[in-house]
Amino acid sequence: LADAPDLSEIMAYHDTAGSKRDRMAGAKWLARLGVEAQPDNVVVVSGAQHGILVAVASVVGPGELVLAESHTYPGFQGCARLLGLRVRPVAMDDQGILPEALEAACAVDKPRLLYCMPALQNPTAAVMGPERRAEIVEIARRFDLTLVQDEIHGGLVEDPGPSLSALAPENVITIAGVSKVLLPGLRIAYLTGPPARAALFPELIWSSSWMASALGSELATRWIEDGTADRIVRERRQELDARQAIAHRCFARQTFRMPRGAYHLWLTIPEHWDVQAYVDAALDRGIAVTPANAFVVAPARADRAVRISLTGVQDHGRLEESLTNLAELATRRASLRTSVRL
Ligand SMILES: Cc1ncc(COP(=O)(O)O)c(C=O)c1O
Predict the structure, then answer these.
(1) Which of 102, 146, 161, 295 is most exposed by smallest CB count within 10 Å?
(2) Which residues pair with 92 in a beta bridge?
């Protein structure tokens, strides 16, 4: 890149929505998630977090009510606070949003937006199967609900089924980040949606960040164009398979959710533990895990579960040691000190 003859052009101010070439690369990245988008309808944003802001602000405004999975990515709740939105939880199972719960929420509250993660949901690792996707989309159509799908992990699922966007292009905005697959430091994600919404994106990008990083976009574009991104995705999947094999060995006697491709697992905490006491006891052993209540959307009740990252340590030996430690801790009775929280 340093030797590029057009380096000064690359690093100059671009169109707010991204250069034509970057938007074409975005369309290619979206296509690997099953999202068909014309480059003119794709914008480059400064990471998926920024994508959430732009997507949500293109649909709703201060004081409005929006829906989210009962356990959701905390960055979404942060964005909702920033925009002055109220968030209501929708009950979920191992395939994400429950159709009957969504239907009831739509009938009562008439929300205009649902934020969700159909593939490898953060934090519960739920994956929406094809039938569930069709049911959710049918409800969205009936109630004129916009689905903002965050596909941050989408590229890692082997066969996710049809994209919500392919099922109902007029109701779905897709955020396709590269952080979890390429590099978070690039600060790049791609956003697409129905043309009427997509037309609002540039103004929202301009007012919140002017444009995405030219350096990050250029690297992502080159990697998407020359096949490096595909190679990295393959390598990531292999690495995750190896890490998941370790987790399966260590948690053979536990109840957990970890579909193929997941960066994390959702471990059910046995009844004899208070969840926070388990988290504290793990921390005493030098291992950080995140309890369900860090993700829960009020007034839903937090699951008796913790999220365990499989990528927090580089070394496989240390991962195995930590997971063995956590599994052993789960089977053990809590000590009086940690089980009784004063
Ligand atoms: C579901 C989800 N969306 C968005 C983000 C933010 O991604 P980015 O680094 O692209 O802003 C994260 C980061 O952890 C995430 O888990």
Answers:
(1) 161
(2) 97
Buried b or exposed e, range 258-273, using 16+ CB within 10 angstroms: bbebbbbbbbbbeeeb
Length reported for the chain: 342
Tens of pLDDT, residues 330-339: 998 766 555 5
Pairing, β 172-177 against β 146-150: parallel
pLDDT band (50, 70, 90) for residue 160: confident
Give the number of other Cβ atoms within 10 Å of residue 76's Cβ.
26
Cβ of 152 closer than 6 Å to ligand 1, yes or no, is: yes
Name which residue sits closest to atom 7 of ligand 1, judged by CA. Answer: 48
- State the Rg of the chain over Cα: 21
Q: What is the pTM of this model?
A: 0.95
How many angstroms is it from 5 CA to the middle of ligand 1?
33
Phi, psi of 113 (to 5 degrees): -150, 140
Instruction: Quote the tokens at residue 317.
Output: 């030996």
Atom of ligand 1 nearest to the CA of 46: 11
Query: Relative to the CA of 153, which ligand 1 atom is closest?
Result: 1
pLDDT digits (tens, 9 = 90+) for 46-58: 999 999 999 999 9
For the stretch 264-323, pLDDT in tens is: 999 999 999 999 999 999 999 999 999 999 999 999 999 999 999 999 999 999 999 999
